[in-house]
Specification:
This protein has 160 residues and is α+β, with helices and mostly antiparallel strands. Helices cover 43% and strands 26% of the residues.
């Protein structure tokens, strides 16, 4: 009886852990920005495009499943185009940095989406392109190309 009770306890702990992971995934991806980010990240990782991304994860709620699937496809297609252009040599990126994945960051109720998101003093910024990056110190954050922190002031170039 003790072994059976211990086994049942272990199963219930595992199931509650899975439910928490699934809930977190819903919070992260069951909105247009999160679905776009998931599509972009799947394409960048070489995963096949999901035909019904939101149908298996998201429940009917604030956003229609069709809208979430469309955002996922847009993110996936955007990243696929970026990769194709790079393979053809149309885009040359040699920053010595690995390109960051599209994602979102929320701090104190402010949510921003983009690449290499960083925060400082409650301010959130994200780079607008995958070959840009963000640099932060305790007081400020800036995004772009060739970012430098000089004596507490961060400056980035808008173009290369």
């Amino acid at each position: 009886m003790i072994i059976k009770t211990g086994f049942m306890l272990m199963v219930s702990i595992l199931l509650s852990g899975c439910a928490a992971i699934q809930q977190q995934a819903r919070q992260d991806f069951c909105n247009p920005e999160g679905a776009y980010a998931k599509g972009s990240n799947d394409a960048q990782a070489g995963q096949p495009m999901a035909a019904n991304f939101a149908g298996s994860l998201c429940v009917a709620g604030q956003y229609p499943i069709a809208e979430l699937n469309q955002s996922y496809r847009k993110g996936y297609q955007f990243m696929t185009r970026q990769q194709t252009q790079r393979q053809r040599g149309q885009i040359t990126i040699n920053t010595g940095r690995q390109q960051s994945q599209y994602g979102c960051l929320e701090v104190m109720g402010v949510k921003r989406c983009g690449y290499d998101c960083k925060q400082a003093m409650g301010k959130v910024q994200c780079a607008s392109k995958p070959d840009q990056y963000c640099l932060s110190n305790p007081w400020m954050v800036a995004c772009g190309y060739q970012c430098e922190d000089r004596f507490g002031t961060i400056r980035c170039q808008a173009t290369r």
